[in-house]
Amino acid sequence: MNRPAVTNWARRHDDFPQAVDSVRTGTGAADTFRASDVAAWLATRRIPVSGLQAGELEGTTYGDRFLASLGAGSRTSPQTVLTHILDRLRGERSTERVLDLLIAVTYVIAVRPADELSRSGDVWWAVRRALAEDGIEAADLGGPVGERWRHESSAEFAAQVLAAEGWDRDTAIEAFDWLVEQRSGIEGRHGSDLVTPQAVRRLMAELLPASDDGTERTILDPFCRTGEILDTCAAVERERAPGAPLALRGVSGEAEDATLARMRLTLRDTGHTVDARGFWWPEPGQRYSGVVSNPPFNQRSEDPYGYEGYFPYGTPPRHSGNFAWLQLAVSALAPGGRAAVLMPNIAAQSANPAERAIRAAMVESGAVEALIALPPQLFGRATSIPVTLWLLRSPTGAPGDVLFVDGASLGSMADRVRRVLSTADVASVVDVCLRWRAAQAGGKAFSGRSGFSASVSPGTLAARDWLLSPVLHVAAVGPGSTSDVAARIGRLTDDLARRDEQAREADGRVREILSELQKEGWWRA
Fold first, then answer.
1. Is the pLDDT reported for residue 311 higher than 80?
2. What is the Cα–Cα distance from 432 to 204, expressed in whole angstroms?
3. What does the alpha-carbon distance between residue 491 and residue 234 come to, in Å, rounded to a whole number?
4. What is the DSSP track for 351-401?
5. Using CA atoms, how far apart are residues 379 and 402, in angstroms rounded to an integer?
6. Within 13 Å and on the Cβ side, how many CA atoms surround 456?
7. Which stretches of 246-389 are DSSP H helices?
8. Helix axes 198-206, 228-240, angle to 10 degrees
9. What letter does residue 279 receive in the DSSP assignment?
10. Most buried among 81, 190, 354, 428, using CB within 10 Å?
């Protein structure tokens, strides 16, 4: 392509790849791009039917053609094959049901010998039999493996097309992950299906301490969605200690999500137990070396209040279960265990008296290790709520310093609505947390990075009314800062928290009024 064409694309498309080198750097070289970046960008752009070449499926992208031109093979990418089938069947069933069908077939391709399905005269029948052998029932995926698809020619078509692709196990797993992400991203699905970004999952997994004595690692996710965080934890554990015993436990909000989590973890050959249930409190003997979770944010729920006597730091307000999840995570930890839990920013600075008291009690017990502010727009269109990662530990019984990291400026925009963290971004956060832990263990002072991290004493936190917002504490120790500036930031943060609290109370009252009107027949959902 000539330079004007590239300039035009870069101006028109916010997600256009960044050049590795440019004449503007003074090297005198023409713009150079990474082939992987170009392929990823072109993979989002489908070739019009009128522009397809011989042998190209409908849904083939310019990325497929680009990779083929580089000698990467002429075989169509898994994503393109799946998109082609989706387009073909979308009119016969809902997108969600077609995705369920493709997930079922792709899973079987990954766990069975490559030629087992292709040798079968009735491929769809072979898929159903294999699913039954693995204990996946018809109702587990909305019925695509049962009566709803039993006599459908479209199911046989999908199974035959995928079986003929001859994918190896790794390719089939890649396709499975893509399908599950598409299913979770369907517009209109509720918040339990929010996909935790890969970089955030990696950050959470790496902040769980590694096993150093060869004993079995046990990791819990009390709201595991489709198991993506547990999956990443398993990958990180294998990198740290190949062959070390690992057991995963997940609790999912829906039966279908629980099935997807089981399938995902089975593909990774990881021992696991996944249940489908609501809010759940572990029994006294159920303790874990690690807890990870991305639970529902600010969700009003009556479920946790069946466990009202279980909350060690106080009963959270009924309008928000944020501190129910945080207390569950702490209570599920074995001695020396760690937890990494995503929370909306408001949990760290809420002015609600009950939530403030819980924050204070958690810090004073030594259960709070660190809070990491993450950048906005990590979840794309799914939610714009800014989040903070809470690092918790099995209570020490005494208050200790808390690490605060302000990572709100990290990452870069992948497109107009989604920000992504780079490997270097994740590494920078992990590094500061590990250095802080080492300083704490050695009884040494920790010098945070100006404008990025700070270690704060319990006394200072109490003086700041137990506000745990990283931006407050990192800014308060920045260069040229004064106590007046810190106090002003504290007041502004507290005012924001109070206004958010008022807004949540107003939302709750509106829901109550609408519910009353609906019961009286004045309004229908």
1. yes
2. 14
3. 42
4. --HHHHHHHHHHHHTT-EEEEEEPPTTTTTTS----EEEEEEES--SS---
5. 27
6. 32
7. 255-267, 322-331, 346-349, 353-364
8. 50
9. S
10. 81
Give the residues across from 219 on adjacent strands: 248, 290
- Distance between CA atoms of 246 and 468, rounded to whole angstroms? 33
The residue to which tokens 């005269």 are assigned: 121
Beta bridge partners of 464: none
Convert the pLDDT of each residue in 5-14 to its tens digit. Answer: 777 787 777 6
Sign of CA dihedral 89, 94, 100, 101: negative
- CA gyration radius for the chain? 25
| Tokens, residue 431 | 């590094």
Closest CA to 176 of 262, 254, 102: 102
Alpha-carbon span 51 to 53, nearest angstrom: 6
The total of other beta-carbon atoms located within 10 Å of residue 254's CB is 16
What's the pLDDT tens digit per position in 409-423? 998 887 777 888 999
**Residue 462: both structure tokens together:** 């109490």
Give me the chain's average pLDDT, please: 82
d(C-alpha 225, C-alpha 192), whole Å:
6
Rounded Cα distance, 419 and 199, in Å: 11
